[in-house]
Amino acid sequence: MRTAVGVVLAAAALGVAACGGEEDEAGAGDAVTVELAEQNGSGQSGTATLMARGGTTRVVLELENGTSEPQPAHIHPGSCADLDPQPAHGLADVVDGSSETRVRAPLSELTAGGFAINVHESAARVQNYVACGNLGGKLGASEPDDDAGYGY
Question: End-to-end alpha-carbon separation of the chain, Å?
């Protein structure tokens, strides 16, 4: 009887381990939250949460005072103070303050430094930046230049 109970418990443990899936690929601690600081008096700030998903990254943006008008968002090379206008990765538009995108790049690459997440006012006013956060370096902190964002 003891052997049967041991076999059942071992099988149950293997079954739980085998049901892992995408969430288990990342492992504990494979998520980063970055502050998206307001730019150009937009009144919009929030967070970007990046979660490792194997060789891809799930990016969730949450902005306070979001609008119902779609707001383009991207991951750009550079920093909030010195943004390369050519995006490295497009993100789903922010609508009503939120967006979720699967980026085809590993979290480690995105957070190694040299990238920033940027949100634009709208497709018609893409040259106006409303929020930005630096990836890499001092994660979770961003100090964008409030005058940046009009040279897209």
Answer: 72
CB within 8 A of 51, min separation 6: which ones? 26, 30, 31, 57, 58, 60, 107
State the CATH architecture for 23-135: Sandwich (2.60)
Stretch (H or E) spanning 132:
strand 129-135
Contact 96, 67 (CB under 8 A): yes
Tokens of 137: 């370096």
pLDDT-derived band at 137, boundaries 50, 70, 90: low
For CA atoms 83, 86, 88, 94, the dihedral sign is positive
Of the given ranges (25-29, 107-111, 129-133, 142-146), which has the lowest mean pLDDT?
A: 142-146
The stretches of the chain forming alpha helices (DSSP H) are 2-18, 22-26, 107-110
